[in-house]
Design goal:
Elements: H1 3-14, H2 19-23, H3 33-56, H4 67-75, H5 99-120, E1 128-131, E2 135-138, H6 139-152, H7 154-163
Antiparallel strand pairs: 1-2
Helix pairs in contact: 1-5, 1-6, 3-5, 3-6
Length: 167
């Protein structure tokens, strides 16, 4: 699935949810669909901020990825497992956004990706920013991580829809 195509899938699906479905938390410790969207959007902006940080640095970084980072990029995506973040990084996402707000925020992600798409290829691949779990990533890798993260959450989206009886 192409970089922007997966985000458009989320946008198209968003139109099908009622506000109640968007905000329903089906069980303790499980996000609502709206929280999942909020998480995806916030993380996408974080990753795109790092694309821009790679453009701002002029320091060559010789460090590479962690072993997990190498596997992740070799596979072209996250493994089909649930990933639990450390509790200090795992505060619940916002659950009050409207469909329109989420739609606008997804449009902002798409706009940023379009703006950075041509720039990222011109950045020295040795200009990198460190990811806490994957190691040192260059602008192209940070950019690719956005769609990899959206694809990773497709399974969660499907599970949440199933719990709400949405198909």
């Amino acid at each position: 699935m192409a970089d922007l195509e997966v985000i458009h899938t989320y946008k198209n699906n968003l139109q099908n949810y009622s506000l109640e479905q968007l905000h329903t938390i089906t069980e303790e410790g499980v996000w609502s669909i709206g929280q999942m969207y909020d998480h995806l959007i916030l993380v996408a902006h974080e990753y795109l901020d790092n694309v821009e940080a790679c453009t701002a640095t002029e320091k060559v970084q010789t460090h590479g990825k962690t072993e997990f980072g190498e596997r992740l990029f070799k596979m072209g995506g996250f493994p089909p497992i649930k990933i639990k973040l450390p509790s200090e990084l795992n505060s619940p996402p916002n659950n009050s956004d409207s469909k329109e707000e989420l739609m606008n925020m997804l449009d902002e992600v798409i706009q940023r990706m379009r703006q950075l798409e041509s720039k990222k290829n011109k950045i020295n691949p040795d200009y990198k920013v460190k990811h806490g779990g994957f190691g040192w990533l260059n602008a192209n890798e940070w950019y690719d991580l956005v769609s990899m993260h959206f694809r990773h959450h497709l399974r969660q989206k499907s599970e949440l829809e199933g719990k709400l009886g949405i198909r």
